[in-house]
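Entry 14. Structure prediction run on the chain below.
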Amino acid sequence: MLMKEGISIIRVPCKLPNVCVVDVKGEDVFRLIGVYAPDSKTWLWDDLSHFLSKKCIIYGDFNVNTMQDGKKAEILFQWADDQFLAQALPNSSTSLRSNRVIDDAFIRGFNIDIQVYNGQIVKESDLMCNIAADYYEEFFNASNIVRPHPYTDSPAIEYDNINEVIPESVLPSAWKDTRMILLAKKYSICLPSLTRPISLLDSFQKIGEKLFLTRFRDLLYRRGLLPDSQSGFRERFRLQTRLLLFLEDIYSLMSNSAPVCTMFVDFRAAFDQLWFLGCIGKLRNLGIPSSFLNWIEVWLNNRCCFLEINGSKSRRFSIEKGGP
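Output returned:
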């Protein structure tokens, strides 16, 4: 039994196997009874009677088909009639193994409609990999950016010594071949769009990133490019400190009767939408030396990956946006 987060419920004690009973609190309180009734069940329909309320829904897999199961269906419907329960039937089959309608609901006190998912549930790992690869190959295609853009098309700013020899940056292509796994954001059975891609990078690549980050962070500190208010992804900077300073600013303004307006923004899939040219252009405008820019550019470009699900691997495809 799945309940949407935020809905208030109270679990009702029930010792019957494969039966779950909860009271749902909304505008009105009603009882929800989830049932799985295989042929081997050890209880009778009458055992559910004392769980019924004035407003209730009993639903699930009754393992009874109205038109095909004769005596079994008669016993179930006789009990439902005795309890003043109305049947709510879906408009299509609910069994994955046959065309039988064995999942339905009985209601008392209000009306409901049953929605049946008619899409395909993919269980084969190879097919799941291919479907997910189709989605993420399109997802990681380069975005269409309106040009000219200030990050890439503004006049160049020369911060480096023009006589300095800029070293060439090279990363082996094998280091940029990424294995990607998918984590479901909420439900284990979901579309690829409801998953979170996790890149498992090459070990040598990760060592190289650590070495580069040490030098790059030192450069940012020496040039004062990171404001103290930036607490994300920084050592010895805590989000709690940033939050306390933010609250202090608000309280200070309110104590002086000043108007306060706050806007919180969360950019969807921001990390996975990173624009390579825009990133390099913005860093160049901040005065990052060309030797660092060359490494970052090589690090971002010409990457590819494959998806792995339960040991099955998809085809390789290019990653044209998003951080590694």
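The chain has two domains: 8-126, 162-224+271-323.
Filed with the rest of this week's runs.
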